[in-house]
TrEMBL record:
Basic and acidic residues bias locations: 328-337
Positions of the D-isomer specific 2-hydroxyacid dehydrogenase NAD-binding domain: 111-289
Keywords: NAD, Oxidoreductase
InterPro entries, alphabetized: D-isomer_2-hydroxyacid_DH, D-isomer_2_OHA_DH_cat_dom, D-isomer_DH_CS1, D-isomer_DH_NAD-bd, NAD(P)-bd_dom_sf
Cellular component terms per the entry's GO annotation: cytosol
Designated name of the protein: D-isomer specific 2-hydroxyacid dehydrogenase
Transmembrane segments: none
Organism: Lysobacter enzymogenes
Region of interest: Disordered: 318-337
Gene Ontology terms, MF aspect: glyoxylate reductase (NADPH) activity; hydroxypyruvate reductase [NAD(P)H] activity; NAD binding
Pfam families, per database record: 2-Hacid_dh (PF00389), 2-Hacid_dh_C (PF02826)
Domain D-isomer specific 2-hydroxyacid dehydrogenase catalytic: 11-311
Amino acid sequence: MSERPRVWVSQPLFADVLARLGEHFEVEATREVTRHEPAAVNAILRRMDGALVTLNDPIGAEQIAGAQRLRAIANVGVGYNNLDIAALSAAGILASNTPDVLTETTADFGFALMMAAARRMSEAERWLRDGHWQRWSFDSLLGADVHGATLAILGMGRIGQAIARRATGFGMRTLYHNRSRLPAAVEAECKAQYVGFDELLARADHLVLVLPYSPQSHHLIDAAALAKLQPHATLTNIARGGIVDEDALCDALEHDRLGAAGLDVYEGEPRLNPRLLQQRRVVLTPHIASGSLATRRAMVALAVDNLIAALGFGPRAGDPPSPINGGTRDRGPGTRI
Ligand code: GLV
């Protein structure tokens, strides 16, 4: 009798959604949110055929060393900078992510965070809760308009486009910059105009970052980039923390060279640069842009579909819905042993 494939689930997710894994595999699930050490992950992956991981879990050469039977890594998240795709591809391991199912929810949040920063919502609530509201005054906590303003989107993938579509309802002018220009029909649908990077920064009233994190985008928004923004502009980041030089951002806020910022992601999260916590004109949220209940469940369900298919089971056996690379290890049904 052949042994069932073994899969590891690196963090506690929705048990009822994960239950489908148990129809095909022996499942080893982590019960508490855990910061796994690389050596511990390696020891686990050496026993596994597949794994379902989150952005908390870096998976690269160190983690997969000697993991002979490992064939698939399913990432719960659209961003996959936690995965070393070159190392996984070299080992023939199929990696997948969870695009599409989170697009609209993440765009909702990006838009809300941009509005919250522009209208100083967190600052106003802190002020109110701290008992400062003695009488209504005409000129307290004045913010910047969103309607009719210029929205600048850096990174015009699915989420960037969904934010642009929202902006049409607010009568905004939308500019974007992206590695490649979108087809004219998509630009027309999003009512978005392609501009160069410097022009995007110079014309932005509200700059929103939605680009993937890579060595090329590390600290792309640094002191020089921030200096190109208008002093009233807002910066919203729902991409990855490492894209922004947080010290340069704090300098800009402290010297009134930037209007406000909305941040959902941080370099080194969940640790925060202590200077950010001192800023008045920032809205800070703990990486929750895709965090509606329905969407988080849909993300886990898609990662489960990916893992089942990548390991050769289910209706899409051998053809996972959202692969990142092409794994070359055997994807036939059952175990390779
Ligand atoms: C969340 O940040 C994701 O990449 O899905």
